[in-house]
Amino acid sequence: MSKPKHPNQVEFQVTGDYALFSDPITRVGGEKCTYQVPTYEALKGILSSVYWKPTIIWYVDAVRIMEPIQTEVKGVRPIKYHGGNDLAYYTYLKQVRYRVQAHFEWNDNRPELAADRNENKHHNIAKRMIEKGGRRDIFLGTRECQGYVEPCDFDSEPGHYGAIPELGFGLMYHGLTYPDEAYSPQTQGKLTANFWYPVMKNGVIAFPRPEGCPLHKPLRDMEQKTFRQALGNFSGLGEFEGVI
After folding, report:
1. Nearest CA to 87 among 96, 71, 74, 69?
2. Per-residue pLDDT of the chain (244 residues; tens, 9 = 90+)
3. Residue 55: Cβ-neighbour burial (10 angstroms; 0-12, 13-18, 19+)
4. What is the DSSP string of 77-93?
5. Cα(69)–Cα(140) distance, rounded to whole angstroms?
6. Which CA distances in Å does 139 have to 6, 18, 145, 182?
7. Which of 74, 65, 111, 80 is nearest to 92 (CA)?
8. What does each C-alpha distance from 10 to 18, 31, 47, 77, 229 come to in angstroms?
9. In whole angstroms, what is the distance from residue 63 CA to residue 192 CA?
10. Coil, strand, or helix at residue 17?
11. Are 53 and 107 in contact (CB under 8 A)?
């Protein structure tokens, strides 16, 4: 069963012909191999493509694996950093379909945007954007894997693994915590990677919050991005301008 619903929870289904979910450390070059299931960070990225504001932080609650886990190896010719092409083999998931539960909370690292904390507004916009397939293109882990989003009832189908009580996937990358979403003094002003041990129960993987992961790795110092109000109110699509 899924977690109890949050007041501003959203539910959606994402599908695609291919997906590649992996640890960013392995993406520098050479061979790429997908995890068997989507990462928290990848699903959060899909939510950000559907609807994002610096006022809120999306938290992915759970994902239901709807189709059997299948992989396909492709030979590709990526562009080399200093020109020319290379030959590499990428391992993708194929014919994927996931159902996702998520909710948002206010970003306490953005007190200057407190005037934009209108829960009904953000929740309703997010639901409309899911119905329209998102504000931006949807990708399943990487740019070449196009995805498609639509509303769904998370619990209306058991999924392919609904009859399997428990299935573990070992140590896995969870996501990144940026300074904008710092949750402790240790994560302020730093880029932090989080790791965990996912377990699928009856086809559903329930995600911990970033601070609930058992392993955290500070990667480097990073300044929090600042925003300025561009239009005099907080109601438009392009109302914030980033300042680096």
Report:
1. 74
2. 445 567 899 999 999 999 999 887 776 667 889 999 999 999 999 999 999 999 999 999 999 999 999 999 998 877 777 777 778 889 999 999 999 999 999 999 999 899 999 999 999 999 999 999 999 999 999 999 999 999 999 999 999 999 999 999 999 999 999 999 999 999 999 999 999 999 999 999 999 999 999 999 999 999 887 766 554 444 444 444 443 2
3. buried
4. -PBPTTSSB--EEEEEE
5. 14
6. 26, 10, 6, 25
7. 74
8. 24, 35, 10, 38, 27
9. 23
10. strand
11. no
* CB contact at 8 A, 45 and 149: no
The single-letter code of the amino acid at 143 is R
The position carrying tokens 């959060």 is 44
**Residue 126: what residue type?**
A
Given a contact cutoff of 8 angstroms between Cβ atoms, the answer to whether 101 and 48 are in contact is no
Q: How far apart are the C-alpha atoms of 62 and 64, rounded to whole Å?
A: 7
CB–CB of 36/69 below 8 Å? yes
Give me the amino acid identity at 161.
Y
Nearest to 226 by CA among 112, 95, 68, 107: 112
Amino acid at 43: L
Which tokens go with 128? 């409309």
Bridge partners (DSSP) of residue 173 are: 195
Sign of CA dihedral 4, 51, 46, 95: positive
